[in-house]
Amino acid sequence: MTVLHVAQRGEPILNLVATAVSEAEFSSPWLFSCVEALKATMIARHGVGIAAPQVYISKRIIIVASKPNPRYPDAPEMEAIEMINPEILEFSDILQLGEEGCLSVESQRGQVLRAEKVTVQYYNLVGEKIQNTFSGFPARIVQHEIDHLNGILFVDRIVLKN
Fold first, then answer.
1. Within 10 A of 137 (CB to CB), how many other CB atoms are there?
2. Pair 18, 53: CB distance under 8 Å
3. What's the rounded Cα separation, in Å, for the pair 107 and 79?
4. What is the pLDDT of residues 40-64, one digit of tens each?
């Protein structure tokens, strides 16, 4: 499987607002191969999530895939979820401080305040609309990856530096 180069902090692609995946792109070979390459890159780099802009594709595509790995040994286990054009519909009032890192900012980790629970609307690869609620660490991943789609890096949200 193709492992892609990951853009690093300071590269302009990471500051852009990504473009929505068009209706014509759903179910396309391009979308399926893009998602497979994103997954392979995330796994190879020990990530728990990845966004298309991190691999130089300015499209609103993320993968959320929490599982224990060398970077996040205590991460809960969940099946990978591909989210196309995700939107957070609701943030919980309860906020939690938690440590974050990023494949695009390899040398830094820090404490970020995020909503403990989020409700997200997104599409799957064939264009079916899905709504799901995430809490805890998976909710943190969703918020982190959607930030990438909006040109925001976690370092812009750090409360306490490690």
1. 19
2. yes
3. 27
4. 999 999 999 999 999 999 999 999 9
Judge if pTM exceeds 0.90. Answer: yes
In this structure, the chain runs to a length of 162
Can you count the helices (H) and strands (E) in the chain?
2, 8
Check if 77 is active-site.
no
* Each residue's pLDDT tens digit, 66-119: 999 888 899 999 999 999 999 999 999 999 999 999 999 998 999 999 999 999
Enter the tokens of residue 96: 């939690």
Q: Alpha helix locations (H) across 27-157?
A: 29-44, 137-149
Residues 86 and 146: beta-carbon distance below 8 Å: yes
List, in order, residues 6 or more apart from 26 with CB less than 8 Å away.
Answer: 84, 123, 125, 126, 127
Residue whose pair of structure tokens reads 């499209």 in the numeric block: 59
Among the listed residues 25, 87, 99, 145, the single catalytic one is: 145
Residue appearing with tokens 């302009």: 12
DSSP three-state, residue 144: helix
